[in-house]
Amino acid sequence: MAAPLVVARTLPPLPGRPLSAEMEAVRARNMRAASDLRELPFKTGDVGMAELSGWEYGTRTREMAEILGGDELRALSKLASAGGVLPEGTDLATLAASFTAASAGATYSPLDKQVLLVGKFKGDSLLTHEFVHALQDQNFDLMNLLVVRPYDFDRTEAVFAIIEGDAMNVQRRMEEGDGYGRKSLDEITKQEGARFGEYRKEAEKLFPPLLTETFIFRYRDGARLVEAVRRKSGERGVDELFRHPPTTSEQILHPEKYAAGEPARDVRLDEAAFAEGGWHNVTSTQLGEIGVRGLLMAGVPRETAVRAAAGWGGDRAYLFERPNSTPLFVWKIVWDKPSDAVEFFRAYDKLEHQRGAMHTDDGSIVGESSDVAWTDGKLATRAQYKGDTVFIIRGADEDVEKALDLAKR
Fold it and tell me: Considering just the CA atoms, what is the radius of gyration of the chain in Å?
């Protein structure tokens, strides 16, 4: 059972610059707007706001990322690199901090309990968005929601989606008034997708699709889920999202699955079997529907990746290591139907070709089961599906076949 982790606050104090009278008025105005639109009180009084230089803001976002999950993101980086998802040596903790610093003019720090503002004031709706995060923190304890161990990528992204979706929902209602409530949920999704369109083009020049897609997911799909709940149950229904948060990105992408309480299928490997072969489990996590989508987008169009990920039922990706051996990536995915497994399998084959891998067999993907192998000249990849289950193994050629046998135990 995942449990909140007690995190020591080790950040140095922020610069103690007082706000101007004008910015004090801006702070107070946006606190009121956040509380009124969200229909929640600030429980512990005023929320501070600090104006930072670009260097100070970038430094703080790096410090925050380190405390909120630096070790876990580094382990995920090694897992993703072993799986061929990210270039070797990628540091997701650094990338995530850079992503935040480059993409926002303000952020709420649950460690500092303040809104951090960089550059010139960019308008009320952005700051109101950040003060909604302060409301969430005072009422629902963001650190308790976010910093949970053992770390689970999919669960963490689902929680981020309600946090950002709630704040984005308030921001859009502030900007659009009653018109927002007259839009269909599909129109809201398309609107957010369009607004992030140009941003995606620029971000993907610097960041991998896995990071870009999961970041946009938090806002686009989180806003849709929050609005769906708000229309059905009002703001108190949104409160319940924080008291009983979604556990998978699938529940965000398909709100009916959250309403039905549909969990992921539990997927585990026999770690003891790997240990007998000298393999140590360095880290493992569920990647979820959004993780599968982001991974596939490195090699196939977004629409193809969305369809191929949509039948996800549960998964777990592992990174195993042993002395003097190439790291071993082992991924088991279960799907709602065998046809979903086949659709994913075909998309994954295209991904392998896109990153330069060549088939070491005839490459046939037919029938109710298939076993396909690739090599990129350095590492071997073996993928097999049977019925609704897919296994993907990546490592040294001499280890892959044995690892597949162990994974199927």
Answer: 22
User: Taking Cα atoms as reference points, which of 251, 268, 69, 283 lies closest to residue 155?
Assistant: 251
User: Whole-structure pTM over 0.70, yes or no?
Assistant: yes
Sign, CA dihedral 229-231-233-235, equals: positive
- Higher-confidence residue of 101 and 140: namely 140
The CA-to-CA distance between both ends of the chain, in Å, stands at 24
For residues 363-391, give the mean pLDDT: 83
Which letter does DSSP use for residue 242 in this model? H
Q: What separation in angstroms does the CA of 157 have from each of 6, 34, 251, 368?
A: 20, 23, 11, 32
Give the pLDDT band (50/70/90) at residue 76. confident
Q: Which two tokens stand for residue 203?
A: 């971000």
DSSP per residue over 68-121, as a string? HHHHHHHHHHHHHHHTTSS-TT--HHHHHHHHHHHH-SEEEETTTTEEEEESS-
At residue 97, does pLDDT exceed 80? no
Structural domains in the chain, sorted by start: 20-138 (no CATH), 152-262 (no CATH), 271-407 (3.40.1000)
Residue 362: band (very low, low, confident or very high) from pLDDT cuts 50, 70, 90 = low
Instruction: Determine contact, residues 5/147, Cβ cutoff 8 Å.
Output: yes
Contact 281, 271 (CB under 8 A): yes
Q: What does the block give as tokens for 329?
A: 């990536």
